[in-house]
Amino acid sequence: MVKVFCPCFSKFRQFFVSNVSHHGTKSWYPGHMYKGMLQMQAKLAIVDCILEVHDARIPFSGRNPQFYSRLTAIKPHILILNKCDLIEPSVRSKIREQLLKEHNIKEVMFTDCKASHKGGIDKILPTAIEMVKETDVYVRSNQPHTNLMVIGIPNVGKSSVINRLRNIHLQKKKATAVGNTPGITKTVLEKIKISDNPKMYLYDTPGVMEPCISNVEVGLRLALCKTLKDNLVGETLIADYLLFWLNKNDNFSYLKYLQMKEPSDDIRVIFLHIAKQHSFVTKIRNAEGSVVQVPDIIKCAVYFINGFRDGHFGKLLLDSDHLKRSS
C-alpha cells in the first residue's frame, strides 16, 4: 500500500457524495430470482445442509437476509467466504470470530477455488457431514444419501465451489457453467453428485439478491465485487466510490497504477488523466454541429474499476469498517 502526504487530505470526502452525474442504483430482482427462492423452499424438505457462498471481500455486506428467514434457520448452515485470496490472511480469524458471535452462523469457512492446492474446499464435506449428524432426526431428509444445497447472491463463485468439490471428491470436471457475470445460473438444477463415499448430492441454485438494497454503500461494494451488473449501477458511480474508499482508507496504490504524482478526491480528475494517458476518447457533435473529441468517461471508469478487480490496489477488505478492533 502506498502512503503519501498531501495537504489536500483534509478536504477529502469523509462521507460518500458523488462528484459525477449518474442514473443511480436500480433495483435488480429479475423474475428468475423470485422463482429461484420459491424453488429453493420447495426443495428444503429433502436438503440436509445448506452451503451459503459469499465474497470474502464483503463478509458483512450484501448477504440476503431472506436466506436466514426462509432457508437456513431450520437447517445446518455453513457460510463459505470464497475468493479469500483477495483479502489478507491476517483478518480471516477476526472475520470468522465476529460472524460466529453476532450473525446467527454456526460455521464459517474460507475458500479459494483458483488455488493450485485444495484451497479449503476439501474441508467442506467433512464439516457438513458432522453438522448433519449433530442435528435432530426430524430436521434431516430421511434420504439414503446426503443432500446439500448451495445458495448465495450472484457471482460469488457458487459454481466454482461445486466444480472444485466434484474435482476433489470424484476427480470429475465441470458440472456447472462458470462465468464472470451475475446471473449465469437461473434455475434450481437437478441433483449433482459430488461424492461416492459417502454418497452426497448437491443442488445448485440461482444467485438471489435482497429485493431492495437500501444502503447505498452496500450496493456499491456489491457492484465493485461484480455481484451487480456495472451498467445497472453506473460505471462512473462505481469508480467514484472506489476512489472515495481508497482515499478514506489511506490506500494510494492507484497512484502507481495510474502513474499519477499525487492523490485526488475528484473522479473527474482521474478520468481526465486516464483519457490523456490511454487516448480514451470518443467523438460527439457539439452545439455548433462540429464533431469534436471528448474523454470516453465509461472507458476511463472501467479502466479504474479493473485496477481493483485485477488486484493492482492490493488485497482489500471492503468491509474493514465493519470489523471490530480487538479490545
Which descriptors apply to this entry?
13% strand, 6-stranded mixed sheet, two-stranded antiparallel ribbon, 8 strands, alpha/beta, 327 residues, 11 helices
Beta content comes to 5-15%
- Mean pLDDT across all amino acids: 88
Order of helices and strands: HEHEHEHEHEEHHHHHEEH
Radius of gyration: 22 Å
The low-confidence runs, each spanning 5 or more residues with pLDDT under 50, are none
Q: How would you describe this structure to a colleague?
A:
This protein has eleven helices and eight strands. The protein has helices at 31-43, 65-70, 92-102, 124-134, 158-170, 216-224, 230-233, 235-248, 254-258, 267-278, 297-309, and strands at 49-55, 77-82, 107-110, 146-151, 192-196, 199-203, 281-285, 291-295. A six-stranded mixed sheet has the order 3-2-1-4-6-5, with helices on both faces. It has a two-stranded antiparallel sheet with strand order 7-8. Helices cover 34% and strands 13% of the residues. Strand 7 (281-285) and strand 8 (291-295) form a beta hairpin. With 327 residues, it is α/β, with parallel strands linked by helices. Helix 6 packs across helix 8 (235-248), helix 8 (235-248) packs across helix 11 and helix 10 (267-278) crosses helix 11 (297-309). The model has no long low-confidence stretch (mean pLDDT 88).
